[in-house]
Amino acid sequence: MMKIRLLVGFTGNIPATIMNCSNLQVLNLGNNNLVGKIPDAIGSLPMLSILALPSNILQGGIAPEIGRLFRLQELYLFNNTFTGNIPATLMNCSNLQILYLASNNLVGKIPDGIGSLSMLRMISLHDNSLQGRIPSEIGSLFRLQELWLYNNSFTGNIPATITNCSNLQILELGNNALAGKIPDGIGSLSMLRMISLHDNSLQGGIPSEIGCLFRLQELWLYNNSFTGNIPATITNCSNLQILQLGFNNLVGKIPDGIGSLSMLSILALHDNILQGGIPNEIGRLFRL
């Protein structure tokens, strides 16, 4: 047997005997009502490339034995009630492309060695209770396309090395306790479609180089302590649909050229110290 997919409302524990299926490549038990823990013997499935147990009621720690699955490419454990730390042994899964552990009760830090998982395309750890700094070695993940870390308790600065992730499309770090500035070089991430840094303690100016992000569709910077003007270069982001800059300390005027952002559907600049007139060209934003 190479694949097991059971998506029909099963209950009870994952049977330990399933670990006897030594040729199993895909184990997908998502969207059931399974309870209990991941069996300790999960590491005895050496051929496993996809382990998908999302949207169940599984609990306990994430089995460190998963780190023995050297062929594992995709790990989906989101939307359960897993507790404890992210096991450091996961850093042994050198072929891992998708790490999806969101919406659990995980604590502790992102493990040292995350930068060694050079095949990673997506890291999704949002909606947990993780803390500590975002590791600078994430900047080694050149294939990374999506980084979802919102709704945790991360502290410190956004690592400057993140600007090395040249394939990054989604940067979602909202609702943490991050401080400092948006890193210089953010404009070099030409594939970015979404930047979400809302509900942190970020400060300094909004970098003018954001105007180099021609694919940017969503910019969520509200509820921080940003200062200075709204950069005029932001009007170069012709695909921008959502511009959320409310609850900051921004000053000056709404930039000339705002009417050229014809894709805008949300423009939120409330609770700042902006002044001057409301530009007539806002009337050209028919999707607003």
UniProtKB/TrEMBL annotation:
<dbReference type="InterPro" id="IPR032675">
    <property type="entry name" value="LRR_dom_sf"/>
</dbReference>
<feature type="domain" description="Disease resistance R13L4/SHOC-2-like LRR">
    <location>
        <begin position="89"/>
        <end position="219"/>
    </location>
</feature>
<dbReference type="GO" id="GO:0004674">
    <property type="term" value="F:protein serine/threonine kinase activity"/>
</dbReference>
<keyword id="KW-1133">Transmembrane helix</keyword>
<dbReference type="Pfam" id="PF23598">
    <property type="entry name" value="LRR_14"/>
</dbReference>
<dbReference type="GO" id="GO:0005886">
    <property type="term" value="C:plasma membrane"/>
</dbReference>
<dbReference type="InterPro" id="IPR053213">
    <property type="entry name" value="RLP29"/>
</dbReference>
<protein>
    <submittedName>
        <fullName>Non-specific serine/threonine protein kinase</fullName>
        <ecNumber>2.7.11.1</ecNumber>
    </submittedName>
</protein>
<keyword id="KW-0418">Kinase</keyword>
<keyword id="KW-0723">Serine/threonine-protein kinase</keyword>
<keyword id="KW-0677">Repeat</keyword>
<keyword id="KW-0812">Transmembrane</keyword>
<keyword id="KW-1003">Cell membrane</keyword>
<dbReference type="GO" id="GO:0051606">
    <property type="term" value="P:detection of stimulus"/>
</dbReference>
<keyword id="KW-0675">Receptor</keyword>
<dbReference type="InterPro" id="IPR055414">
    <property type="entry name" value="LRR_R13L4/SHOC2-like"/>
</dbReference>
<dbReference type="Pfam" id="PF00560">
    <property type="entry name" value="LRR_1"/>
</dbReference>
<keyword id="KW-0732">Signal</keyword>
<keyword id="KW-0325">Glycoprotein</keyword>
<keyword id="KW-0433">Leucine-rich repeat</keyword>
<dbReference type="InterPro" id="IPR001611">
    <property type="entry name" value="Leu-rich_rpt"/>
</dbReference>
<keyword id="KW-0808">Transferase</keyword>
<keyword id="KW-0472">Membrane</keyword>
